[in-house]
Structures
1.
Amino acid sequence: MFRSRRLLLLLLLMACRTSAPGQPGLQYPPYPDGVESSGGGYLIEDTVGGTNYGIEWVHTSAGTQLWFGRLVAQDPSGQAVWRLVDTLSPPAHDSTRRLIGGQCTAHGALDQEILALVDGEDAESLRTVFSAWRADRRSGRFMVLPPAGIVCVNEGYGG
């Protein structure tokens, strides 16, 4: 009896603990101290009545991160509230490379879960992919992808 109460108390404490900045389980906004939203990101909309997910670029003391969040609510003002499911620290890169998400194809099929670090060339289609990841909604994780066959749309081309 004592042992089961102790186990129950331990499980309750673990369930109620707050997550550290950038740790899965964190509910945001508000953002933790030392984390600032860059204002960039995109929504991965569910098309079959499930949950929407979002990818957001944030700045932390450790550098730029991508946060993969699941939409859990809306606050009284209508602002989305997210639960962090995974983080990704992309490789450091200079201004000749760009991180593109939601606008990439894999072997010709648009896939909004794909993010890619591409050459920032002046072309409609960005075909030089250095690194790629999938924001996998089933597992709630960023998964590394081989860059072969990935092409991203350059939204700023021609403008």
2.
Amino acid sequence: MQYLFGTHGRPNLRRCWLTQGRHATTHWASLHLLPFFGAVPVNERVVVDGAWVFAAGVTAGIDGALRLAAELRGDETAPAIQLQMAYAPERPFNSGTPETAPVVVLKQARRSVRAITAQREQTARRVATKLDIAVPAAAGE
């Protein structure tokens, strides 16, 4: 079986139609844009939908890669890879998600991604139009 692995970042616009109907995740600042590509957003670090593996951020990408390694090579191989990587995260702060971040940190983070998120939404709207996917109107429309 072939797998497709995706992590947060810009979508591959030539292939975004492939996500239609898939359960998927991405970075918290763009999770609301997944329906523009026909995907069903799931607020989790890693989402597996058939042969598709989606990860929500940088460290979630490592988690997703280890899950894919387990799928491809077995439950014995993935922990060995994790050990070789010395991947044993110890969070210095509990602000890795909007749900756990202190309000002041979340507000600052949202401000810092506001412009790029708006650009991504414009792109997502264009893609949705090309894919004939109905999306909600933008705020103020």
3.
Amino acid sequence: MQKAKIVNNKILNKQLSDIDRIYIGNDYCENNLDYSKINQLIDFYNNKVKISLLLPFLTDKSFDKVSNILKNLENINSKYSEIIFNDWGTFYYLRTYYPKLNLVMGRLLTKQKKDPRADIILKNKQDKVKVIKSNDCNKIIYTKKVPGTLVDIFARHSVESDEIFDFLLKNNVSRIEIDNLVWNMVSLLPKDIKVSLYFPYILLTVTRYCGGMNGKYSKVCNFDCRNKATLLEDGFYINGNAVYYKNDILPSNKVFKSNNIDRIVYQNNI
């Protein structure tokens, strides 16, 4: 099992002893990509460990800055370097102008059903009777048993068809990334496509309007996500423009094997 770690700053060489790969960047906000520091980190880690550049969904303003980083990666370590893309515009840009770099489909594109609050419903442990009070009368609602087909749907992700498999492999994308769901995970991936699992934080949702998320409603980015994340309740966190849930239980070896998971990405920066 490969071990990868998301880093924001330099870490000591001795901390790399059990790490196969480091992730530089983030997958939630282009404003929080420190471009000058990214190049410094790439130079620092080169020849020490394999490097993955983690990109969020990008707008036009970021491509020139990202291009300088990609050229650096292409020159120093293109064989083992990876670029993790999280939108199709970035994929097209990378495949057009940097065809030699290895691409990975990020977790924003694998489209899992992630909300952990659905777990009690999938297990049919929700309240069997609910009373809704109104001025006219009280309504009693009886919940129905969740069918097994719905449980199966929640266990899957969007990379599920032969057409998608062919498209990814033809474009040199032989890895996708997923979150560590609180329920069972099922995959139909061919053996040629490997999977990275993020741990312990599940990225539930992300927005471009982070002012609404952090309650400050500022129109200009104030880099609030560089401060400590805000704990909402029961393991839910807001970090800038993203909402996470902490699930610190790894799946079984059977789930690892059946889902082609051969890498754990340790995310400790929340």
